[in-house]
Write a structure and sequence with these properties.
- Four copies of one chain form a homotetramer.
- Chain A has two domains: 55 residues, Arc Repressor Mutant, subunit A; 150 residues, Orthogonal Bundle (Tetracycline Repressor, domain 2).
- The N and C termini of chain A lie far apart (56 Å).
- By secondary structure, the first copy, chain A, is mostly helical.
- The first copy, chain A, contains ten helices and no strands.
- Chains in contact: A-B, C-D.
- At the C-D interface, α9 and α10 of C face α10 and α11 of D.
- Chain B binds a DNA duplex through α4.
Chain lengths: 217, 217, 217, 217
DNA sequence: GATGAATGAGGATTCATTCAT
DNA sequence: TATGAATGAATCCTCATTCAT
């Protein structure tokens, strides 16, 4: 019983879609994320969407097209615009400390990730198998994200809040720690009992201390 | 041009295999890791292995069987026995500090991971799609690994080297940081220039400071 | 050169069928009856039907399904309804004597059998190899046919036309004699010259005398 | 747990066979009779026989060869020699009446049929699918059996014990009645309770009266 | 004689895609 | 726009048969 229509509407905004097309996308997202693109048949999607198989191909030339039409906006909306926003906020000193920034990012993005979980799962599951996607992803990451993140990191390094270390490494360690939580929490052990708030706090503290300038002595 | 016969011999030791069977396994590992299990055809494997397609099915009842015969030993040899070894070493105080332990583990496992990279890639790529594998993996992880790691962590917590924090969280943060490096280094940006030694050292320092008891003030 | 469309239309009435589907059924009946279900390949059927192999599986999930979709209606239309009809006629004394009944049955059923010969051949050839079919057949036979035939036999036994003998035995002997003719005539020696009328008459007389009450003395 | 070694020894006498070869034959007979020739794989036979698949082909050039090596002697020993024996007995007036002859035949052949049931089942199941077998069978039947049976029938017709009717028809009716019993008894309803003796007697009486000259009035 | 690994042709079935309606 | 019948290439797998040991 997909409740995430709203999320869909955001992700696929400015795309006019028939009711059926939405159903197809929903079904595809659900099955792709569950069984993987390759192991999913268009027939299966059609059935789950309550649509004739031909209808899928009216809207998406090929099965791959359908995949891309899910991944592309996920990539675009998930990664790019967010950082632009935060980036400006940082430069404008809206986040007074690295800690503030970190906390804001985690809370904000986590919400998004939770809602769009299946889409993101597809994204990471399929990237290794589709070189074009990989390329696209790297470009996004490197050009839009890392570039900006570097500037942010350097900003906080200048302020003396972050240890002197190649910004890429700072980014890697920070992202690892956050993703490590997300993956453990939602992918690997979703049914375990988690004290989300405490875990997030611990993760933030871990990152902050791990990157603190006090380590220098 | 598979040069990793030695690794194969270790991973599939105590299994008598025809020359052809080895060829099949090698081919399967290579293609599975590249395109994913589902997108790989047995025909393709046969061709790459220089074998008739029927031969595959003489040795492995089904394609899935072939997958499992790759994953199972990878799981067994990669995860379980290693920790048992290290576990004892820790208890016997062979590693004087958490830092020593961390460094030993990283160096040792990294070597193995590098050699068996394709197998491990398959392992992580396929687990999300095969509930039995997931189950098996969790069991391995939880029963054999986390249980022991917890004891190790508690040992170093008692010694005052690690901050007082639920051991699972310590494990999560540590493992995230290490895997973050491995994934970035070997999966996402293998072609970038990496100063491995420095990056490993930074990762270790990050973990140590992130978990240090001096944070407490 | 299938001329039996009419028969098909009867046998598969109330089933909407594509032209192609009919072609598939015709081809299947012909080849199944000739070479047996197991020795028939779907490829062969497709070719004879002038259809792509995939088309077969659009209409019948499996090859077995195709077989059943031939056998089930044959069983239903061949066995069940006929006897119900005759059964009522007997009870309504439309057949004044056992001889009349016998003659009517033979002539009527013989016509049907001749037309649907391949279907019936398949029925009897495949039953021994498919336990579910066997079960289904027995149920049909026992519940619908023998039960009614028993009543008919008992009716004529009451009238003193048939010797006092377990009705099953009467049925067995009668059916054997008739089927013996059909099998010899159409299955074993179809190319021999047969004086059908005379042979049928002799068969009827044989049964009548074999079961006559005059034997009693 | 095949107990019919003796039967095998008779059927395949004057053929030198290794232990393995016997095992193969036994397994083949069992599976062929159960699933049909076409649906039986040599692999299956090999497994049941406890033999390597290659061994089958040491002894029988092809799978068909194996089938024939079962059917041929069954045909030869079941049909031919028996009638020769009985034939002579009839001519030598060893059977004083048609009834005696009938009874002797039924009892004698029934015994054989019961023991060699699977072989005979194979015979009748496979004949429709193998034209050469059909031909071979017809030849056996027509040349060796019917020809002689005709003479026997004519003998009893001369004696006035059998009604004046084409001998083929007499044979057909007689054989039908007997086979009708065998098929019902052993093939169709083997698990029903049968009073064998009574049923056989009824069958004999049915045939005798059906063919009696007293019918002539 | 017996084995069982190896074969490749052929088996049933699935698949993404097309197209007439 | 939507359908669903039709396709035929491709898929996984089975088979009878061969052959080196």
């Amino acid at each position: 019983m997909p409740k995430r229509d709203n999320v869909f509407d955001i992700l696929f905004e400015n795309q006019e879609m028939t009711e059926k097309q939405k159903k197809i996308l929903e079904a595809a997202v659900e099955i792709f994320s569950e069984k993987g693109y390759s192991a999913t048949s268009t027939n299966e999607i059609a059935k789950k969407a309550g649509v004739a198989e031909g209808t899928i191909f009216r809207h998406y030339k090929t099965k791959k097209d359908l995949l891309l039409s899910i991944i592309a906006p996920t990539m675009a909306k998930f990664i790019a615009p967010f950082f632009i926003r935060d980036f400006n906020k940082v430069l404008l000193s809206e986040y007074q400390s690295f800690e503030d920034f970190l906390r804001a990012v985690i809370i904000n993005r986590m919400e998004f990730a939770k809602k769009n979980f299946p889409m993101i799962k597809i994204l990471f599951q399929e990237i290794p198998f589709h070189p074009e996607l990989k390329e696209q992803f790297k470009e996004h990451i490197i050009n839009h994200v890392i570039k900006r993140l570097k500037l942010i990191v350097e900003e906080y390094q200048k302020k003396g809040e972050i240890i002197d270390m190649p910004p890429q490494t700072v980014i890697r360690l920070t992202v690892s720690s956050i993703l490590g939580f997300v993956i453990g929490r939602y992918l690997m052990f979703p049914e375990a009992k988690w004290d989300d708030e405490a875990e997030i706090e611990r993760t933030i503290q871990f990152i902050l201390h791990g990157l603190s300038t006090y380590n220098k002595e």
